[in-house]
Amino acid sequence: MLKVCDLVKKLQNHLVLHQLNMEIEDGCIYGLIGENGAGKSTLLRILAGVYECDHGCVMIDDQELHKHPERKAEILLIQDEPFYFHHATLSDMKHFYQIAHPDLDEAYYHKLITAFELDDRQPLYKFSKGMKRQAFLILGLCIAPRYLLLDEAFDGLDPHMRMMFKKEISDRIEEKKMSVIISSHNLKEMEELCDCFGILENGKLLTSGSVSDKLHEVHRFQLAFAKPIDKEEFSELKLLSLQITASIVNLVAEGEEAEIKAFLKEKQPIMMEMLPVSLEEIFVFKMLNKTEVSQ
Amino acid sequence: MKQLLLTNTELSYVNYYIKKEARLGIATIIILALFVSGLLLPAALVEIGLTLFGGQFDFHSGSGWESMSRVFISVCVLAYLLPLYLFRFKMNRSGNDLYLSLPIERKRLFYVHYVIGLFYLITISLLLLIGYSVFVKALSIYQITSAGSFSYILLNIYFIGLGVCLYTFFTYIVIRCHNLLDAILMELAYTLLPLLFYYALQALIIHAAEASTAYLFLGFDDASLLNMIELPTAVLSIPTQMNLWMLYYCSYASEAVIALELLLVAGLLWIIFAVCCFLGARRSFVRIRSEQSGQNTNAFFTYPLLIPLVSFLLLIATQSEQLFSISIIFILVAYLLAHFIAYRKISFSIRKLLLFFSLAASSFLLFISLTKTNLFGALKEVPKLENVNSFTLEITQYDANNESPQTTFLSGSGSSDEALADILREQAKIRDYKKQHSNNEFYDQAYIVRFQYDSDTAEQGFIERTYIFNQEDREYIEARITEWKKNNIIQNYTV
Question: Domains of chain A (ranges plus CATH)?
Fold first, then answer.
C-alpha cells in the first residue's frame, strides 16, 4: 500500500500541499482530480521521489520512500512532457529505463509498438506530442511497476488511442496487479477508468473514496411545485447545488437516497424526478463549495 | 565496501551512459585532436588567449611545449563543458523527473555522474597525449631527450590533475546553478575572475610602488617564494604554471628550485580547493531542491557573490586610472546589467545602489590605505642591510624612437658596508622623489634606474627594484649622479 502521511510541501513560499493524508490500495486505479495549481503534479513528483516533502512522508509498505531510495524501482512517473535524451529513440529510452526496471516486458513492448504503429528507431523529437505520450505510456505499461504515476498522460491523445490505452491499462492491472495513479482534467474519462478518486483543493484532499460509492452518495433531483418555493425550505439537506427557477427546482444533495426522497416528498411537489450525477458534476459542485441559487 | 563500490544499477547506469555517449566522445576526440595538431585553430589565437590570462608562455621556443599547452587547453575545455553536459538534467524539470526518480540515492547519483565525467576527461586527455607523443616521435618534430621525456610525462600528469581540479570546481558551480544560461555565465565569470583579481592586485602593488615594474617582497629571506605577484599568479594562472614547468625543465638550479616551490604550493592549494569543491558539490546535489530547476540562480557563490566581487575588483583595478570618474559610471552600468541578467528583470532598488556606492567607497579607502602604507608595510622596497651581500646600480636610457633603444647611462656594483648603506639611502631618495612626481604613463624616452641586491645564499637569487623616470626628470637624475660623484658615493662606476 502507498500511504501519504501529513504531507506538507511549499514551492517558492507558496503552500502547495498542506497536511495531506491519503492511501492507495494495491491494484486500483486512482484518479487525482483538482483545478490547475491544486498540487496534483507536485504530489505525483513527491510520490516518485523527485521532490522531497517539507514535512510528513510517503510510505510504501511501512517503509519511508525517502529513506529507502531503492524502493523507487517500484514506482514510475510518466510526465505530461516526458524527458528524453537528445536524438534518443524510443528504443534508446527503453534501454535507459531497463537500468532501473530490468523486468521490462520485451514481448509486450513489441506487441504494443506494432499495435500503436510507432517506429522505435525514429528519434523521439520527430514524434508528435501525442505520439511521444503514446511512446512513454507504452514504456510504462511494459515496465508495469507496482505504482504507475501518470500526470495528465492521456491529454493530447485522440479518442481512439485513449480507448486503446484504457483497455491496455485495465488488462495490465488485471495481469500484473499494479496500481495506477492518474491525474487528469478529463473527469468523464476518470469516471470510466478509475476505481477510486481524490479531489485536491488548496493542498488538501477535499474528498476521496470509491467512484461508485461516491456516485451513490450524491443525488440529483428535479422537482416542480404548484407555487414558487423559497430556498430555505431545503436548508436541512446537505446541498451541493440548488437552482430554483420560479416553481421548478433542481438540486444536488449528498446523503442517503431514501432519506432525501422522503424529505422532498414532504414538500409535496407536483413532480419529482431523480437524474444521474457524473463525477465531473461532483467535482464542480465540490470545487464551487457553495449552493448556487437563481430565482 | 558496499558504500564504496557501485551497485549493479549504478554500474548498468555508467555502462549505459558511456555507450550512449560513445559517438559524442569520438567526435570530441577528433575535434580536440585537430586542435592539438594545429589544424583546427591558428596558434596565434591560442597565444592571444594565453596572453590574456597572464601567461608568459613562449610559443616560439621550439621545444615542443606549445603542443602540450594545446593538450592542456583541450583538458580545460573538457573540464568546462563536461559538468554542463552531465548535470544539465538538474536544470530541467522533466530531466529531474527522469533522473531523480531512478532508484539510486542522490549522493550516489552524483558520484556516478562525476565518475563518468572523470572517465571522459582522463581518457580523452590521455588519448590526445599519447596520440600527440607518437605523432611528435614519428615525425621527429622536436628532439626530446630522455630527461625531457620524463619532465614531459611529469608535467602532463600535473596538468591532467589540474584539469581534474578544474572539472571538480566547475561541477560545483554548475550544480549551484538552476538553469543552463546561468551555469554557462557562472563558469565564464569564474574563468575570468582570476584574471581580474590578478589585474586588481597588480594595480594595487604597482600603484603602491609607484613604478611600472616591481619585484616586491615581504622579507628578503623568503623573496623567492613569497613574491607578492608571482605566488597568486602561479596559483590562479594556469599558463604561468606552464611557464614555471618550463623554468623547472630549462633553467639553472636556483630558478628551477623557485619554480618547483611555486608549483608545489600552487598544486597543493589546487588539491585542497578541489577537495572542498567536491564535498560542496556533493552536498549541494543532495540538498538542492529539484523544484528550483529552471528558476533564477540565487546561491551565494553565484550572482550574489560575483556581482559585488567583480564590481569591487574592477573598481580597484581602475582606481589609478586618470578617467576613474568615467570608468565608475561604466562599472555601475555593468553592475546593474549583471543584476538584470541575474534576476531577468529590471530593478533599480536603493539597496543595490547603496551597495554599489559602498563598494566604490570601500575600494577607494582600501586603495588609498594600501598605497599610502606600502601595502600595510608588507612592501619593503629596501632590503635589510645585514642580508645583502653585494649590490648593482644601473641607469639606462630608453628611447622608443631610436633603433638601439637602450643605452647604459651608468652601471657599476659594490659590496662594502659603507657603499651598501649609501646605496640603500639613495634608493630611498629615488623612491620618495618618484612617489611625489610619478605618473605611470608609457614614456617614449625614459630613464630606467635599477637597483639589484644579492643575498648571502646563492639559491635565493637576487632582489631587483626598478624605477622609471620620464624625460622631464632628466635634471633630477643628472643632479643625483653629480651628487653621488661629489660625495664619493659611487666608486668604480662607469658613467
Answer: 2-202 (3.40.50.300), 214-288 (3.30.70)
